[in-house]
Amino acid sequence: GPLREPAERLESVDFIVRNGGDGRPGEVLMHLDGDTAVRLGDGETRPLASFKGRKVRALAGIGNPQRFFGHLRSFGLEVEDRAFPDHHVFRAEDLAWGDDVPLLMTEKDAVKCRAFSQKNLWMVPVCAALPPEFAASVLNLLRTKTCGRQTA
Description:
elongated, 6-stranded mixed beta sheet, single chain, alpha/beta
């Protein structure tokens, strides 16, 4: 991505994977996939859709917090969000909203917040979802580069 690699690097890559958006010709589009929330204190799991129609709060200390907040909103959640800088070191005060409204966060942030385990803290595990044909393209490229032949 542009925060980790210079633009010139695009000239030497085999694939360009874009996270969200419309994409450009030749790019592979991926999106966040994950529809479950896990309570930090006891590991209870709930579908994200079960929070629909009620107010939730969300925090994220990641490179693009709006992407995470958008993912939550795509399930119809009414999200009051709070973004923190990437790699933020959370303190108990960061989680103190003064009520028991569910507070959703990324897995990355949950690792840092486990010590503050309040009953209303939930993490939302997500993974990168790529088109099924992308795996075949990667395997073909690997075979070509290592064995000099393509597969069907």
